[in-house]
Protein: Aminopeptidase P family protein
Organism: Methanobacterium spitsbergense
Amino acid sequence: MNTKLKQVIESMHKENIDSMIVLKPENIRYLTGFRPSSSSILILKDNPVLLASKIDREDASGRSLVNLEVYKEFKDVKNYLEGKIGIENSMNVETYKKLTGDFELETTDIVEISRAVKSKWEVENIEKALQIAEKSLLELEFSGTEVELAAQLEYNMRINDSERASFETIVASGSRSSLPHGSPTKNEVEYPILIDWGAVYNNYSSDTTRTIIETEKQEEIFNIVLEAQQTAIKSIKPGVKSSEIDNIAREVITEYGYGDAFIHSTGHGVGLEIHEKPSLSKNDEGILEKDMVVTVEPGIYLEGEFGIRIEDMILIKNRATVLNKTKAKLSF
Amino acid sequence: MNTKLKQVIESMHKENIDSMIVLKPENIRYLTGFRPSSSSILILKDNPVLLASKIDREDASGRSLVNLEVYKEFKDVKNYLEGKIGIENSMNVETYKKLTGDFELETTDIVEISRAVKSKWEVENIEKALQIAEKSLLELEFSGTEVELAAQLEYNMRINDSERASFETIVASGSRSSLPHGSPTKNEVEYPILIDWGAVYNNYSSDTTRTIIETEKQEEIFNIVLEAQQTAIKSIKPGVKSSEIDNIAREVITEYGYGDAFIHSTGHGVGLEIHEKPSLSKNDEGILEKDMVVTVEPGIYLEGEFGIRIEDMILIKNRATVLNKTKAKLSF
């Protein structure tokens, strides 16, 4: 049994959970090595079993580290369960209701908590995804439309061994850069060009933003965002509250008078999901730990004018280690 | 108020639901015209309101047909709710628990049921997505590796106005084609080449599979799958049970002795989601209706040898109308 699986089962015992139903594909991938393509169910107990759909059986049998059985209907699951049952917070109400009454159920995020702290192998995969993403950006010609830029970037990532784009690529230029999640249009790119993109390697994601600027006003705002980002990064270390890092970035931007224009949180964990624990946000009560991987991505968005965001990926050791190799201020 | 929104609110009244919480991005898109990029909440009642996150406010204000307010925390939602509350089956347990106790909750899939029957405008968007997907396939050179083919296909779709690939493109060739959801590898493509791909236009998806064959054995299996598909398509009309269409496709394949090798259901609805109501599967109890859009996609998978799947998109009128323009048997 692999180390992570063992740890999670130990956590179950500590919480007096006898069996746990795992449905989230990323959690199944984390614990079995196999990422299901259709509904599969991992039953965690002392002898875990992966119930795969027929459609996944052949692929799963070559990849799953956990014993495999084929299941037909959700109700079959009940035969594998005993005692107090752990369920994920992400389980949907429809499934929850099928189990309620028959079992004592307890929601738990022990798998997500385990996933927040990365193994050396996981960090290597994240670094590889990031390396693909950055290489693919640097191969771009910065001309044409936003859509053409996004298409070429995604093509480059694929050819450079990314399994897919880790999320919908954002290329938002000119005044559209004030939309934090602006999707690419057929407009010719103009400055600033905000690009938020990522690759996936072995199911692990990267997530980075670069904004390419031109005017003095853009540079002024860029430097404020950069200062906020660098100050936040320097404050990262094990034992610090996640919310404190958000505070620190926000204070810098607020001091310059742009507090209201920083309209999202400062960062988030990245791994098998593009957003996972921890959350670097105001209301998060978590504490940063060694070997977490997080983004730090403050931004200033001036509606009708432009927006700037700078996002790097950080591995937490005794201090923050920036995983990105490309500098924040790019010019082409 | 648009027609769909009005219909859904009428359905709520019929079920004695006073307010409904809509969280699924596709459902919000369907009822407001705006697809949120981060967590947003639509409250359905006689005066519906869309609670958008700050990050989406600017974009939503230009697109939402429903009054917009910015929300900060989930608990703010409670101020908008009254009486018996409808919730989606897809709501997660974490959110469900925040509401339990304070409100009488009832799960309902009235939005998904409404979505299954498409308006003329929705069909036009689906047709446009399909047209982009097919054009992009025909522009391909069928050489290189599976990954190169997938990369080029996705690039073509982007350039031809697709917002993204509607799901992870499947290019599975040679013996890998026996994996119904085989992801592309760095192997040079060999026959058969199974490609399952789709485009997205105005948030509406297409979904098609073509398998390009070479040998006589492949052609023999191809013809069985095609016969199953055509027989199933001919049986589609309003009033027929979804499960009956699955039965019909399965019977043809079973008669030729390959019943055990058809390891998935026959089809599914497509629209704002790649899999939505109805499901053309054995245990589905639904009835087909006019203006539904479904896939019909039987397959035979011979482990260690190869697999064949043929998937077209069907608009249900008095009979089935095939939306695809490319023929099932392609050669390049």
Notes: Chain B is about 35% helix and 20% strand.
